[in-house]
Amino acid sequence: QVKEHINTVQNFEAQSKEAIEAFRIEYLGSKGILKELFTKFKEVPNDQKKDFGQAINELKQKATDKVVQLKASLEDKQEEAGIYGDLTRSGYPTPVGARHPINVVKNQIIDVFSRIGFNVSEGPEIEDDWHNFTALNLPAHHPARDMQDTFFIQTDPDVLLRTHTSSVQVRYMENNQPPIRTISPGRVFRNEAISARAHCIFHQVEGLYIDKNVSFADLKQTLLYFTKEMFGKSEIRLRPSYFPFTEPSAEVDIYWGLETETDYRITKGTGWLEIMGCGMVDPAVLQNCGIDPNEYSGFAFGMGIERIAMLLYQIGDIRMFFENDVRFLKQFSNSL
Ligand code: PHE
C-alpha cells in the first residue's frame, strides 16, 4: 500500500500553484496521508515495524522533494514567459532619444545658480507691454525699444512675444518681497534676420538678486563664480553698456582664446566673447514692481543659452539648434 503511494508521488505532475498546494495538503498536510500512516505505524506488528517505518519515511521524503521540485520548475516557466512573453515585440532595439543641447546647458546653468541659493521662475511667452517694456523703464516711444525688434500679436500693440525673460523678473517682483534670488530660463523672440549668429527664436536665462545693501561687488563675484563653474575659467571683463532697466549697466565678455576655426568664428577673431548683459536694477524698476528702492537694491543679468552652448560645444552655427537634424542631436546622447 505504501509502495503504491510512492509510485503515485513519483509520477505526479502539476502545472499550477493550486495543484501543487493540493498535492502537498493531500500527502503532507496535518490530516494528510502521511499523518494517517504514522498513526497506523503504532498498530503494526513489531516484526514489520522496520520495513513499514522505512517505507513511510521514504514516502515522506519523496513527497517533500516533489513539492520543492514542482514549485521550482513552475517558477522557471513563469520567468521564461516573462522574457519571451510578447512574441509580437520587435526584434530590433528601440532607439532612445537624446536631451537637446539647449536643455543640457540650461540645466547646467540652473545647477550652478541653485548651489548659491537661486530658485527658478517661469512666466508666459506671450506678454503684455507692461511686463516686457513699461515696468522695465521702457515707456512707449522710448528709443531703446528698438534694441529689441518685437513681434506683436494680431493688431493689438499690448500683446507681444516676450523679447527677454526680464518680463518674468517683473512678475516675480510683483508677487514676492525681498530677499529675492531667482533665475528665469525661457524662450524669447525677436524679429531678426536669421544667420549663423542670430535667430528669431532663442533661449535666455536671466537672474535677479534683491536684498538690503546689494552692491556691484556682489554682482561681480557672482559672475566670477558662474564663469568659473560653467567654463572652468573666470577671465572676464566688464564693458560699460546701457540697458534701460539697470544703472550702471555692463556687458560681460569671457576670454576664450583662439585655438580652433570655430573659436575664430564665434569670437570674431579677438578671443573675447560677449556672454551676457548685467547691471544694478534701476530704482525706478523696483518702484514699478512694488519694492521700496530706499530699503532694497539689487542686480540683474541675462544671457543667451545658445551662445553659451555654442562656446561649450564648439558649434559654429546657431541654426543647428533649431533644425532637429538627428545626426547633430544624437551627439548629445551622453549628456544628462
Ligand atoms: N534683458 C537683457 C537682454 O535681453 C539682458 C539683461 C538682463 C541686461 C538683465 C541687464 C540686466 O538683452
UniProtKB/TrEMBL annotation:
<dbReference type="Pfam" id="PF02912">
    <property type="entry name" value="Phe_tRNA-synt_N"/>
</dbReference>
<dbReference type="GO" id="GO:0006432">
    <property type="term" value="P:phenylalanyl-tRNA aminoacylation"/>
</dbReference>
<dbReference type="InterPro" id="IPR004529">
    <property type="entry name" value="Phe-tRNA-synth_IIc_asu"/>
</dbReference>
<keyword id="KW-0030">Aminoacyl-tRNA synthetase</keyword>
<keyword id="KW-0648">Protein biosynthesis</keyword>
<dbReference type="GO" id="GO:0000049">
    <property type="term" value="F:tRNA binding"/>
</dbReference>
<keyword id="KW-0479">Metal-binding</keyword>
<dbReference type="InterPro" id="IPR045864">
    <property type="entry name" value="aa-tRNA-synth_II/BPL/LPL"/>
</dbReference>
<dbReference type="GO" id="GO:0004826">
    <property type="term" value="F:phenylalanine-tRNA ligase activity"/>
</dbReference>
<keyword id="KW-0547">Nucleotide-binding</keyword>
<keyword id="KW-0460">Magnesium</keyword>
<dbReference type="InterPro" id="IPR022911">
    <property type="entry name" value="Phe_tRNA_ligase_alpha1_bac"/>
</dbReference>
<protein>
    <recommendedName>
        <fullName>Phenylalanine--tRNA ligase alpha subunit</fullName>
        <ecNumber>6.1.1.20</ecNumber>
    </recommendedName>
</protein>
<keyword id="KW-0436">Ligase</keyword>
<keyword id="KW-0067">ATP-binding</keyword>
<dbReference type="GO" id="GO:0005737">
    <property type="term" value="C:cytoplasm"/>
</dbReference>
<keyword id="KW-0963">Cytoplasm</keyword>
<comment type="similarity">
    <text>Belongs to the class-II aminoacyl-tRNA synthetase family. Phe-tRNA synthetase alpha subunit type 1 subfamily.</text>
</comment>
<comment type="subunit">
    <text>Tetramer of two alpha and two beta subunits.</text>
</comment>
<dbReference type="InterPro" id="IPR002319">
    <property type="entry name" value="Phenylalanyl-tRNA_Synthase"/>
</dbReference>
<dbReference type="GO" id="GO:0000287">
    <property type="term" value="F:magnesium ion binding"/>
</dbReference>
<dbReference type="Pfam" id="PF01409">
    <property type="entry name" value="tRNA-synt_2d"/>
</dbReference>
<dbReference type="InterPro" id="IPR004188">
    <property type="entry name" value="Phe-tRNA_ligase_II_N"/>
</dbReference>
<feature type="binding site">
    <location>
        <position position="247"/>
    </location>
    <ligand>
        <name>Mg(2+)</name>
    </ligand>
</feature>
<dbReference type="InterPro" id="IPR006195">
    <property type="entry name" value="aa-tRNA-synth_II"/>
</dbReference>
<dbReference type="InterPro" id="IPR010978">
    <property type="entry name" value="tRNA-bd_arm"/>
</dbReference>
<feature type="domain" description="Aminoacyl-transfer RNA synthetases class-II family profile">
    <location>
        <begin position="105"/>
        <end position="331"/>
    </location>
</feature>
<dbReference type="GO" id="GO:0005524">
    <property type="term" value="F:ATP binding"/>
</dbReference>
